[in-house]
Amino acid sequence: MRRFLIGALLTALLAYPMLFYAHKYAVPWTGMNDFRSYHAMVLNPLDFQAARAPFAMRQIPTLIARAILELGLIYPNEIWFELHATHGGVTYSKDVFFALMFGSFLGMVGTGGLLYMAAARLDGERARLLSPYGLLAVGLLLLAGTTLFYTLAPLTEGWSWFLLMEIVVLSRRDDRWRWVALPLLMLAIFERELLPLVVAILAVAELLAGWGEPGADRRRYLLALLGTSVLSLFTYWLLRGVVLPLWETDQRQIDPLFWVRFLLLNWRRFVEFEFIQGVFFKLNVPLLWATAAVAALRQGMARQDMAFLAALALSAIAILLIAVGSAGDRGSDRLVAILTPLFVLSLVELLHRLNGTEQTDT
């Protein structure tokens, strides 16, 4: 808990100027149009008719923003948004704008605490007030290219980061607390529908890497994690496909056959410079991770460690394909950026491994 609090405090202190800047100058109509739906959901909590799917499913961040409004935690500052508050004939509230942005900021602060706590374990038994690896993890999280664009924004990314990181941290434990990850997986569909898919890929990768080795208890847990992920995805599909009213475009987002057809007909899109630039421009941390992963693989790694790297890469590819297949690549980098905390944690672990190898060689 101490490490979590230190990491959360460091994240808050280092990220506050970024929050101030984003709140002061951000205009949601330049790449954050989803704000329109979340604005309606904040004003109409738990009303699944307030916005179209998939936004209507993302109740967790909008309920947090509503709580911020009810508590009066509003920053009364003159902001650029006020000059653009009327859009499409509708006037939007700057208080809701701040509540969503501050809520995402709180999710990012919690993510920073979890990352610091996980990375600080690499220090071993050395007692330090501040962990070098924890500081590195927090710094990388804040310097990720998508942090300022999408996380410090009136969107949902902050709590997607936190929930995914919390599930992964819990799943790495070997005590009873790891089972808390299962109900969190069921809740994840009310934050971001891609989270159970990522956890399922991580579970499958670890299962395949360690199936022939002893550890029946760990296998049972991973199977439970995988089963819950599948159940969560099925529940999401049921709610989206049966319960909630759908537009034709919404139906495409949950139709894998449509994704495949679209990808087969538009495969050239992946080699166009415009697409490559648009997707990878802000993904600096995954690119750093890929460089470190290649260096570590050349030196040799255990199967379990390689499984985590493979699962991260496969998750990024799967999300990218789903984003392109369902929406024509709009916001592909934003969806891949959901994995940012995991890329940061893996990158720090890789750097720790490489640093240890170099010291041994020396």
Could you characterize the architecture of this molecule?
With about 350 residues, this protein is mostly helical. It has helices at about 1-25, 35-45, 60-70, 95-120, 130-145, 145-150, 155-170, 180-185, 195-210, 215-245, 250, 255-265, 275-280, 285-300, 305-325, 330-335, 340-360, and strands spanning about 85, 90. The chain has a two-stranded antiparallel sheet with strand order 1-2. The model is unreliable at about 360 (pLDDT under 50).
Helix content: 55-70%
Give the count of helical stretches: 17
* Spatial order of strands in the largest sheet: 1-2
Q: Regions with pLDDT < 50 over 5+ consecutive residues?
A: 358-362
Number of DSSP strands?
A: 2
Structural class: mainly alpha
How far apart are the first and last residues' alpha carbons, in Å?
A: 36 Å
Task: Report on the biggest sheet.
Answer: 2 strands, antiparallel
**Percentage of β-strand residues:** under 5%
Gyration radius, in Å:
21 Å
- Strand-and-helix sequence, N→C? HHHEEHHHHHHHHHHHHHH
Global geometry:
globular
Mean pLDDT, all residues: 88
